[in-house]
Specification:
The protein is α+β, with helices and mostly antiparallel strands and 204 residues long. It has 2 domains: 11-109, Jelly Rolls (Sandwich), CATH 2.60.120.10; 112-203, Orthogonal Bundle (Arc Repressor Mutant, subunit A), CATH 1.10.10. It has helices at residues 11-16, 99-108, 110-134, 139-151, 168-175, 179-191, and strands at 20-24, 29-31, 39-45, 48-53, 59-65, 70-71, 85-88, 92-98, 163-164, 196-198, 201-203. A hairpin with a 2-residue loop joins strand 10 and strand 11. One of its GO terms (molecular function) is DNA binding.
Length: 204
């Protein structure tokens, strides 16, 4: 699968538009559902979880992002509040650029705007593929659909080069499968060469 990396803007260019570096402690909230988007965010170290909760309080994880990846960008082009939360899974460092400065940056650097449009279109494509996969009765198809979607945010092209940062329980929650089914299917997928497991970590 050929991937387009999650849009990364050069750190020096961000700095030229008055971006600031923020450090977040584990579990610290970066923004919450209902907040108005005020910044472009880009991760330099750590891991950020994007999630929300249903009316019963059950967590739904949309993605877990890492170094050089951005998050929340689509909302910067809309007059809408965040429909999700972002928090640090572990101590993380994030560059954030005020929304007005971000808009000026892409106006004055049109290639970045084009690259960002390509990236957002790429994400949407793989999200649609994932949604189709979730309708399958085949557990492997559901898991592969999810893994393809997660990998679409990275620039990993090689087989078994992308680490799945989610736990088995989180994979189960996202695919609507029992955790026992996930564990059994993951082992089967490893034996068939779809994934590689090292120190209990899944590589796709």
């Amino acid at each position: 699968m050929k991937t387009i990396s999650c849009m990364k803007i050069d750190n020096q260019l961000l700095g030229a538009y008055s971006a600031e570096v923020r450090k977040y402690d584990e579990k610290e909230i970066i923004f919450s559902e209902g907040d108005f988007p005020s910044y472009y965010y880009q991760i330099t170290e750590g891991a950020i979880k994007i999630n929300n909760y249903n009316e019963d309080g059950k967590e739904f994880i949309h993605n877990i992002l890492g170094k050089d990846q951005s998050f929340g960008d689509p909302l910067l082009f809309m007059d809408k509040t965040y429909p999700m939360n972002a928090s640090a899974l572990k101590p993380s460092t994030v560059i954030r650029l005020p929304r007005k400065n971000f808009i000026n940056l892409i106006k004055e650097n049109p290639q970045i705007s084009l690259d960002m449009n390509a990236c957002l279109s790429h994400r949407l494509y793989y999200k649609m593929i994932m949604m189709q996969s979730m309708a399958s009765q085949n557990p492997s198809a559901r898991i592969i659909g999810l893994f393809d979607y997660l990998k679409s945010y990275s620039d990993c092209d090689d087989h078994h080069s992308f680490q799945i940062l989610m736990t088995r329980q989180q994979i189960a929650d996202l695919t609507g499968l029992r955790v026992e089914t996930i564990i059994r299917t993951i082992k089967k997928m490893e034996s068939e060469g779809f994934i590689k497991i090292k120190d209990r970590k899944i590589y796709y």
